[in-house]
Amino acid sequence: MMKLSRGIRGIRFCERHQIPIPPKRAIYGFFQGRKNPLFTNWMAQKLRFDDAKLPEIFADGGLVGGYSSREYWLDGEQVLLALREDVSDLLLKGTVESMGVPAEGKRKVLIRTAEKKIELRPRATIFSAGAGNQTLLEMMKKEDRALREQIAAKPWSGVVHKVKRSQVLVIKGKELTDVACMIPSLDLYIVPRNEGNATVWLISDGADPEVRPGDPVDLTQDPKLNDERLTGSVGSMTRAMPRLSRLSLTAGYYTGFRVDGRSFSKTNGEVVEDFGIGDLLVVWPSMLSLAPKASSIVVEKLRKKGIFPSEHAISVEAIRLPKVETQIGQEKWKTVNWSSWEQFRDDLHNRLQRYS
Ligand SMILES: Cc1cc2nc3c(=O)[nH]c(=O)nc-3n(C[C@H](O)[C@H](O)[C@H](O)COP(=O)(O)OP(=O)(O)OC[C@H]3O[C@@H](n4cnc5c(N)ncnc54)[C@H](O)[C@@H]3O)c2cc1C
Predict the structure, then answer these.
(1) Smaller CB count within 10 Å for the chain: N or C?
(2) Quick check: is 13 in a domain?
(3) Is 168 in the pocket of ligand 1 (CB under 6 A)?
(4) Same domain, 166 and 249
(5) Which of 106-115, 132-141, 175-184, 266-275 shows the lowest mean pLDDT across its residues?
(6) Which atom of ligand 1 is the closest one to the Cα of 136?
């Protein structure tokens, strides 16, 4: 499930694919006199909001007020299924061997599948491989002088994405309130999920430090947990909701690298980069909830280039290949190792003691 307020096109996408988007309450909480630019954002986005009656769970926590708005939430796995729906007959599974533009002009893509080698002459090529976009660009660059020159001219010296270390504290319990919360003065951002009759809170600190270009990271592995950051999140939770310790809760965490496009036109949100060679677009949605919006930007850009969907699209059936069976990944919180909230905090405390 994820926040959709920034992508009205995302809402239309969900309606078209009949994905339920139940509106839920989002609470923006603050301590005395500590308002934040997020509030200005709500105004700028013309979100409707009211003064919030803070949920019971915040009693005794020092929050003096808040605002509340209705937001749309949806299931990430359903978004992926819907995004796949329209193209399921067109999916090929294989390895791209080359993507060059031969002397006579039109790009030639060679793909090796388990069954045979396939040559495509695409009217447009769109990379949407997350961290893999960089690798695909490197590969295309080798065979495409125009792309090489365009990328060399960019001031980011060839590194086309920014990588951030993200980590999420997860707590689960029947007595948690099914709302989203933003408490910027405590660096506390909570997104709700449901599991049976329990509510799950995904808690982040909004910090996500960027990995400096050139620093060695293995993007195929999740980043190491940062215990200091986790302690910050646990401390903020305890401060905002002292009564949490009286509830029966389980807790866990997950980490991941966030990969965003490095664009100069904007600092966050979806990036659809045209590297100036005509037939290539590279997409970083930045949030899964912005993937439908990023997709519609791609379609718009292609239309402007005079490229429209063709009735002659090659289906896997037409080239006598088996239909690709794709699996949809689970939302990451479903894979955490749970322990009791008390045990979780003790373990964290002990780990920190050991380091110091
Ligand atoms: C910890 C964490 C929490 C997040 N929480 C949220 C949230 O609450 N809400 C939200 O909206 N977003 C969230 N995001 C962001 C969201 O996960 C990403 O924006 C989204 O997954 C990006 O989608 P993508 O398809 O561009 O890239 P990815 O999800 O990275 O998918 C890229 C795919 O391309 C494949 N690939 C790579 N290289 C190649 C290649 N050469 N050939 C073929 N395939 C290749 C990869 O195997 C992968 O399957 C979170 C991210 C992290 C790390």
Answers:
(1) C
(2) no
(3) yes
(4) yes
(5) 266-275
(6) 41
Give the 3-state secondary structure percentages of the chain, helix then strand then coil, rounded to 5.
Answer: 30, 25, 40
Q: Print the domain residue range for 202.
A: 26-69+162-261+330-355
Q: Given a cut of 80, is residue 35 above it in pLDDT?
A: no
Contacts of 113 (CB under 8 A, 6+ apart): 92, 93, 94, 321
Look-up: residue for tokens 């280039």? Answer: 305
pLDDT tens by residue, 198-249: 999 999 999 999 998 778 889 889 999 999 999 999 999 999 999 999 999 9
Measured distance CA(249)–CA(14) in Å, rounded: 33
Ligand 1 proximity of 286 Cβ (cutoff 6 Å): yes
List of residues 6+ apart from 3 with CB closer than 8 A: 26, 71, 72, 73, 180, 191, 287, 289
Burial (Cβ within 10 Å: 0-12, 13-18, ≥19) of residue 59: exposed
51 with 102, same domain: the answer is no
Q: Which residue's alpha carbon is nearest to atom 24 within ligand 1?
A: 130
Q: How many domains does the chain fold into?
A: 2
Could you tell me if residue 5 is inside a domain? no
